[in-house]
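FIELD: query
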Amino acid sequence: MSRVGAKLRELRRRRNLAVRELAARSGVSHSTISLIERDMISPSVDTLSAIVDALGGTMTAFFSGIEPAADLSPFYPSGEATEIGNPQTISYKVIGINQPNRQLLMLRETYAPGADTGEVFSHAAHEAGIVISGAVEVIVGDHARVLSAGDGYYFDSRKPHRFRNVENGPSEILSAVTPPTY
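FIELD: result
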């Protein structure tokens, strides 16, 4: 079960911020923040990053409750990736979340049919990815393209962007973000 909503609500309350004030600071609508805080929706990595940033935190600190690996193995079997999304809509599995001083966010993203990251969003990083299966519409600034298996992207994440599965089945992307947004 997700604890993202409860953590966000706690951070916002500690800073004595109303939902609308946090919305204005983060660029994320107040209704979206409210739904996230009540665990009614699972935020995209970009949305969560903007909210945490507006709260003056980092994604690393936000997820600091995750224990580091005892032996710091460089290998991650598929079952050991940390889920930070919503497996019913958009699953974000993080590879190596427990590595100290990470300089890269590596994600295996799985989009359910019709799943969409929502409103365009931006943050201070660079992103790259390759569509592994299915077809995903990627919008970056004024550019939009449907990418299929084998197609890739790379962009400055400060440009507003969003992702949408246009396939009748699930679509999958292997992506990297640097610096890591958490």
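FIELD: remark
The helical segments are 4-14, 19-26, 30-37, 45-54, 59-62.
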